[in-house]
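User: Can you predict the 3D structure for this chain?
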Amino acid sequence: MKIGNLDLGDRPVLLAPMEDVTDASFRIICKEFGAAMVYTEFISSDGLIRDAAKAVAKMKTSDEEAPVAIQIYGSIPEAMVDAAKMADRAAEIAGGHGADIIDINFGCPVSKIAGRGAGSGMMKEPDKMVAITRAIVEAVGKPVTVKTRLGWDENSKIIVDLAERLQDVGISAITIHGRTRCQMYKGEADWSLIGAVKANPRMHIPVIGNGDINSAVKARDAFERYGVDGIMVGRASFGHPWIFREIRHFLDTGEEMAPMSVVDRVELAKRHLALSLALKGPVTGVLEMRRHLSCYFKGLPDFKETRIRLVTLNDPSELVKTLDYVAGRWGNEPLTESASVYGL
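Assistant: Here is the predicted structure, written as structure tokens:
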């Protein structure tokens, strides 16, 4: 699959953008496990044009995670164009690798974003969505992609027509989450409409499917049943970044990998913690790792007290000691991966 001149290989598996999850340390970890491309947390166009420190900092990427897409969101056309221009110059503005792709978030369903017309709130105004996309494509030099949903609600699933319109104003690929905005993350993702977009004979850009991919078997089925060019994994990677290796192995060999052992998870958690500390310092690095640490060990029996320690300790050395305790205490515990373990 190629996006512009960027070749992501056959049947690529991408890491979805997730607020408060896909920071630099997590992106690097997922890349090491085989994610073909990673995305930043979504970045407010208003924050970027105001030069808000947090928004600018989110644009900093590294060569270790490349190729990487910087994702922006907003509802004001002028602000979106200016933010896209900043993302195009991210290496100059924020340092690091910069952006290989600029992605527009037309898919986030949370009320604080969609409720003010941004993210999937744009599904109510498809003409405006297309106009903003056209303006961004014309304003930047890097490939522009879009991530969106099926429609606003059950009565307005406009994605087949909308995808073609977005293609025709110049985007280089489209990612479609198989739910409406009103569904949020409830119920099952409807991949039939993603398949319908791909089957449209007038579509010639890559179509990437997203929604409920939480196993290697589901990933294979998405490619085989719906013909998508790529798939994107979101929530199932949280606490389970090795899912990219599992999917890649299954797609290439037809064989499922054994679950990662507790000892290996401990070593991974320590590596992730070290990256977070190096990138964000001892205070923020620990605070922002808390959401990840306990999730590496979901499903272990009698783990409550240890989990509490992992999400309350402030001293990095004490966290490492606790992780070593996990390896010693549960190192021989048999593990199975399941959708329920990862909250899907």
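Residues 262-293 form the longest helix (32 residues). Confidence is low (pLDDT under 50) at residues 338-344.
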